[in-house]
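Intended use. Records such as the WEB family protein entry shown here are meant for training and evaluating sequence-to-structure methods. They are not intended to support clinical decisions.
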Amino acid sequence: GSTSFLYIFKMGEVDTKPIEPVQVALSLFGDKGEQRKSRPTSRDKECENEKELVGLSKDLANYKVQMDAAYKQALLKPDYYQKTADELSNLLKISEIERELCIDECREAETRINELESKVKEMQLSHVLSELKATKSELLSMETELAVARDSNLKAMTRAELIETASNMEKEKTEVLLKCISDLSEDIAKSKLAAIEEEKEKLAVLSEKDAEIESSDKSASNIINSLNQLQVDLEVKERRILDQSIYIETLEMELNRLKLDCNNSEEEVVRLSLVIETLTNEVQKVKAEMDEIKGREMEALIEIALLKASFIKGSSKLQQKKEPRLAVEAHEAKEENLMLKQGADEAAEETENSELVGSQSENPLQDVEASQTEELKIEDEEKMDKDDGHITISLESLGEDSIKLSTPENKHELETLKKELEIATAKIREFRNRAEQAVSRAELAEKAKVAIEEQLRKWIEQKQRRNLLPLGKVLNMKF
């Protein structure tokens, strides 16, 4: 439409090209008239006039031709304008038709938009309704979990009381171990003082031996002088000199041996102090492990209590919705729980047997107090039986609750709760095994302490006996 309008505008411009020759002719005529006025009249002027007439005739012919062409163009322009007007009217009609089509399309789009808005509102309403149903189901499940958690909390409290009694007994054992370690440290200090006194006595003996050596030297010089005087007693005195030299050598050997014994006793005292430090560290580690085990057992018991409470609440609310098929599924779940319990008991027995074998092969000092270890093992087995009884009771109650809670909506939740309960029981068994290991370590430390005290006592008795014996008996010499 814009291109046709520009074309029409260009065609409507005035064509001034045919008029330009007329203007040129007028200018020539004006110039020639002025020249005629200025020039004189003669034949030359006539010739020139004739030539000018010929030229003017030619110019007139040309002008006529140009006027005809301009006239023809003027006749053609109205037709052209009529054509352009027709084209513009056609374009106007086409634009009106397009405008009506656009109006119809806009109306259809408005109706479509209204339909889409209504559909969107319906979808939003359905989504809100589905969310409302989901929240209602979640609310019901949370209520069931709360009821089960309350019930499990009651059982957990009883279990916690039992664990507290066990922990108190273990605390008493650790206190006894600490007292034994303090006694052992006092004995080591006494042994150090005894070693210092022995060193002082050895120095006194060495000084006496030096004095004896000096006196023997003097006697040797006297013997040499007497040999010059008494040649008869030469052999006897030579024998005495030989005996005295042997005696001196034996004294030197005894001195060296005593020095070695002193060094060995010092090294042994250092080693025993290191052993005592390791034993104290072991006792501290045992205490830390016992505290950690207590905390973990409390967490596990709280977890089991929450799970049990959730089961009980679900059973109280869904007791009226029983079906025979669901009862069969609950019975199968109960059998699975019993199988899991049996497998856990077998694993606990295997760990106990492995711990007993390892403790027997770990240190030969366990034969000293076999009766005490057997009593402690019997107590631990009784505790294990009590805890296993509690676990079996919880598993049986879990099976009874599973019959009530085995609806299609809560079946998945029941399985997850079973798994969580099994994990909690496994954690409790692991904590119990760690507590048994800590008790066995404490027993080994006590036995090692007793063995060290016995060895120190034997060494002290041997040293006292050596100090009491005379030097001649020690060396087995005869003068």
